[in-house]
Design brief:
By secondary structure, the chain is mainly alpha-helical. The protein has one domain (about 1-125). The protein contains three helices and two strands; from the N terminus they run H-H-H-E-E. It has a two-stranded antiparallel sheet. The chain is flat, with a radius of gyration of 20 Å. It starts with 6 loop residues before the first helix and ends with a strand.
């Protein structure tokens, strides 16, 4: 029945595949973060490293979901309502990504260049 599949059916499969990739990225990223940080160096450093690794996996998952939503809106359901819904979803996910990035980095993105993290101590530019 492959020859009788419509474009929309193919694109629905693509979207499902992308969304499935998000799940695999979350699981793989979380396991990798645990193995990379918790196994070799147990303790507080391991917790912080694993936390950042899992957070990055979640950020990747959010980005993959946005890709799936864009593909779905453009190819499967190209209506004004779905475009507005996509905009709202992208706004919420962008806010979540932004908040998560602040949690991981400890500083808002526009201050990142002014703040340097050096082995646990924070030095701001201009403070000798």
């Amino acid at each position: 029945m492959i020859g009788s599949a419509t474009f929309e059916e193919w694109m629905e499969q693509v979207v499902r595949g992308i969304r499935g990739g998000r799940g695999r990225a979350l699981v793989a990223g979380s396991v990798l973060a645990f193995v990379r940080f918790a196994v070799p160096c147990p303790g507080v450093r391991a917790y912080e490293g694993a936390r950042q690794g899992v957070g990055r996996a979640i950020l990747l998952g959010l980005e993959i979901l946005i890709i799936a939503d864009i593909v779905q809106t453009i190819t499967i359901d190209p209506t004004l309502e779905s475009a507005i819904a996509l905009g709202a979803i992208a706004l919420v996910r962008t806010f979540l990504s932004f908040s998560l990035e602040i949690q991981l980095e400890g500083v808002v993105p526009w201050r990142r260049s002014a703040v340097q993290i050096d082995r646990g101590s924070v030095r701001t530019s201009g403070s000798g």
